[in-house]
Design goal:
- The protein is α+β, with helices and mostly antiparallel strands and about 210 residues long.
- The chain has five helices and six strands.
- The chain is about 45% helix and about 15% strand.
- The longest helix has 22 residues.
- It has a four-stranded mixed sheet with strand order 1-2-3-4, sandwiched between helices. Strands 5-6 form a two-stranded antiparallel sheet.
């Protein structure tokens, strides 16, 4: 299991609880004008103009070193993604899930502080503004509380386990009422290996006659 990947998804889910979110989304406005390719965001919180892009989502064992051309293309895509987000009033946070955790916490804290300033000076109705500011205040408090408990990547394992539990519950809820028989073999986001096609990750589940 890739503990860092799962752990940061769990931490993000807990910190941003209470905000509308779009997960693994490709908004039409996030289209590279040079190539026509629609770019993706791992998280978009439209109420507060914040987005998150997780990098390094392939395991370190799988990740082959980039050559110079691949690196240039990736950096170009990231620059376009960031520029388009800014043009649409969205602050984009980017971090590699394998980075030092305290740096990631600082990035998330900076994004929440920015969102609070944007909401405070927005033309939203006073009641909506106060409600969003309170949600963001609680988000910052949760982030600080988690930050005090995570010092190195070794401290991320419990959060990764919580994400697996969350994904399992989401899969069960999407499947509808519980059925008789064995528990499902797969849950969303778990890593799998196929004898012919190699390694992959579960991105969707479909019921096949009760299986």
């Amino acid at each position: 299991m890739d503990a860092e990947q799962f752990a940061w998804r769990e931490i993000i889910a807990r910190v941003f609880e209470g905000l509308d979110q779009e997960r693994d989304v490709a908004p039409p406005w996030l289209t590279n004008p040079a190539t026509g390719r629609i770019l993706r965001l791992n998280y978009l919180f439209p109420q507060v103009g914040l987005a998150i892009r997780l990098e390094g989502l392939r395991s370190r064992a799988q990740k082959a070193p980039e050559d110079e051309r691949e690196r240039a293309l990736r950096l170009e895509r990231e620059a376009v993604r960031e520029r388009l987000c800014a043009e649409h009033g969205v602050r984009l946070l980017r971090f590699d899930v394998y980075e030092e955790p305290q740096r990631i916490f600082r990035e998330l804290a900076s994004g929440l502080a920015w969102s609070m300033r944007q909401v405070a000076k927005s033309d939203k109705a006073p009641e909506e503004k106060l409600q969003l500011l309170e949600v963001l205040r609680r988000a910052r408090a949760r982030l600080e509380e988690i930050q005090r408990r995570v010092h190195t990547s070794r401290d991320l394992q419990p959060w990764a386990d919580l994400w697996v539990d969350r994904a399992y519950l989401e899969a069960r809820q999407q499947a509808g009422p519980p059925r008789e028989g064995p528990l499902p073999r797969y849950v969303l986001h778990m890593r799998v290996r196929h004898p012919d096609f190699g390694t992959g990750r579960v991105v969707a589940l479909a019921d096949d006659n009760g299986d």
